[in-house]
Amino acid sequence: MKPQSPLFSFRYSSFFCLALLLFVTAGCSDLQKTFNFKSIDEEGKEVKTELELPAKTLLMKGMDDYNVGKYFTAIEFFEEILNKYPFSPEAPLAELKAADCNYYLERYAEALVLYEEFENRHPTNESIPYVIFQRAMCNYKQIDRVDRDTSGAIKSIALFKQLLKAYPASPYSAEAKDRIATATEFLANHEYFVVEYYVRTEKYDQAKIRIKFLLAMYPDTKIAAKATEMLARLEAGDPPRSPLTSWLPKLNLRSWTIFNQNDAANSTTTAE
């Protein structure tokens, strides 16, 4: 049998590859039908994938879910707008609502980043007072027990004060003042917790220094009267004597209730 020339083999291989390419290209639609890549709803009807929807439709669908509290699905529509249509007229609202979804899903760190990005990108947007308020709330919601980190309270107070200074007539001013008062009470209670620790461990000089700091910083708080009484006893050389059990770790530390009755009503508040 006569052996095939290298040129013949090359031409044959090239022809085969070209034919295969044409087959695959022409058969893509048939292949998609064969494997049924379409999305089908519960009634068996074809549903357009999110990738095929325009920004306006995505926003409508996202807002429909958002308004009934379906934040997990709503955020997907908003993120799709930001990924595919970042310069569309719908993008700013999608940014804001994506932040809101994270906030109501209690992803406060993520929400805070998104609110900050929105403020940086749209500094003149009419929603900026709301955005500053929400930035403050992201920190406020992370206030924990009095024996733990106080940064959430400190940062929230600073942002609430920023809101009141820049937008004193905003619809969020009254609540911002209430939140400042509550966060301030938390900080005062934190200081008094430290005072109690120093008294239990008989470090009375440190306790007096901490009480004086508390009274200077938070004179109008509810705990101030108790702190004043404690300071008087320490200066009189009559500190309270702790029982043996007070040396053990406190397993029932006071929790700090930072959420008032208005939170339930505010949980569905939106800002356009």
Alpha-carbon distance between the termini? 82 Å
Q: Globular, elongated, flat, extended or rod-shaped: what is the shape?
A: elongated
**Mean pLDDT reading:** 80
The percent range for helix content is 55-70%
Largest β sheet strand count, sense and barrel closure: 2 strands, antiparallel
Number of helices: 12
Strand content: under 5%
What is the gyration radius calculated from CA atoms? 31 Å
What would you call the quaternary organization?
single chain
| Uncertain stretches | 6-42, 258-272
Strand segment count: 2
Identify the strand order in the major beta sheet: 1-2
Helix-strand pattern: HHEEHHHHHHHHHH
| Structural class designation | mainly alpha
Task: List the topology elements.
Layout: H1 6-26, H2 28-35, E1 39-40, E2 46-47, H3 55-67, H4 71-84, H5 91-104, H6 108-121, H7 128-140, H8 151-166, H9 173-200, H10 204-217, H11 224-235, H12 262-266
Antiparallel strand pairs: 1-2
Helix pairs in contact: 3-4, 3-5, 4-5, 5-6, 6-7, 7-8, 8-9, 9-10, 10-11
Characterise the protein shown here.
By secondary structure, the chain is mainly α. The protein is about 65% helix and about 0% strand. The chain has a domain of about 60 residues. Strand 1 and strand 2 form a beta hairpin. Helix 3 runs antiparallel to helix 4 and helix 7 packs antiparallel against helix 8. It is elongated and about 75 Å long.
